[in-house]
Design a protein that fits this description.
Layout (H helix, E strand, L loop, with lengths): L13 H7 L4 E5 L6 H13 L5 E3 L17 H14 L3 E4 L3 H10 L3 E4 L1 H4 L2 H10 L7 E4 L6 H13 L5 E5 L17 H9 L5 E3 L1 H5 L5 H10 L4 E5 L17 H10 L9 H41 L7 H14 L7 H23 L9
Parallel strand pairs: 1-2, 1-8, 2-3, 3-4, 4-5, 5-6, 6-7, 7-8
Helix pairs in contact: 2-3, 4-6, 6-7, 12-14
Bound molecules: phosphoenolpyruvate (PEP) and manganese (II) ion (MN).
Length: 372
Amino acid sequence: MLLVLWNVNKFKTLRKEVANSSRPFLIAGPCSAESMEQVDEVVRSLAEIKAVQLIRAGVWKPRTRPNSFEGMGDEALHWLMMASQKYGLPVSTEVANAQHVEKALKAGVHVLWLGARTTVNPFTVQEIADALKGVSVPVIVKNPVNPDLELWIGALERLDKAGVSDTVAVHRGFSYYNHPTYRNAPQWEIPIALRERVPNIPMLCDPSHISGKRDLIFDLSQKALDLHFDGLMIEVHNDPSRALSDAQQQLTPLQLSSLLNGLVIREHTVHDNFVEQLNEMRGEVELLDDQLFELLAKRMKHSATIGDFKREHGITILQQEHWKKMIAQRMGQSIDYDLSKEFVRRLMDEIHQESIRKQTKVMNPEKGRLEE
Ligand code: PEP
Ligand code: MN
């Protein structure tokens, strides 16, 4: 058999590569590298899907429970590099300590990534950052397992301080006890806030780890693109049902292909023709927001008046039974108003907290610090 060796694109900077990509940047590959044959087979199929720009595969797997498959370790690096050479695609893997960094770099891995269980630990992030001093390699930083924006930013800062500035963020959702839908709750507001705080950071979405199951991956990918994410990181296995890790969430290469065909890619910049109309519609929303805020201000003033009354008559601010009734009433109306139950609950909680703050202020005028 004639072995064709391609010139693997070694990203001068991954950031530029992502920014200049005409389509959403696409990272795909198995959760774990399992055998030489499996890596070869899946990378071959992914290379045929021209949209894939970077291969992913875990070699050292951080598992929640012991006695699960913990990755094939060092030898798997060579399977990745062989497939990379053979099919002309750069490869990435997860590093969770300085030794991993050293081994991955020595093998020639093109891009490294920090997993959610690493970003959460500043000692480990620092160890990795120190190991990367003086090395020019792109690093993908997944969000920490818990919804802590500061930790995510902190990891990027630690890398930056060590001279690793070619970083890309990946949103993979946040740990949640018994979430009804997702393996990890998306909490989209957190990656959005990261982009606000670190404006130039390219942001990709990993719908595989958010969903934990195949059938949600399309909708999550579409949503990420509609939120102007710069790309996707999707787990793809040649035979998902036999995968040694994350079997429920991996797609076949064919499923990835049809997912890509189905995605609608929308423009971020508003075309001149639409600016006027869009602004008009936004103007109406602004008017409605004005009314909402006036009403909220009125409502909170009234809460303060009730606070006065409670103080005069020695009644506690929180009336648990009354609050329970209020919540039940509004939750019951969520369908009539076409609002999601989650939104109604969060909105009512926020209104209630603000109301408690107002009443605390009138009850304890001298204890201004409790206001916050
Ligand atoms: C992975 O990408 O396979 C992985 C372990 O992801 P995360 O760090 O997001 O859990
Ligand atoms: Mn995985």
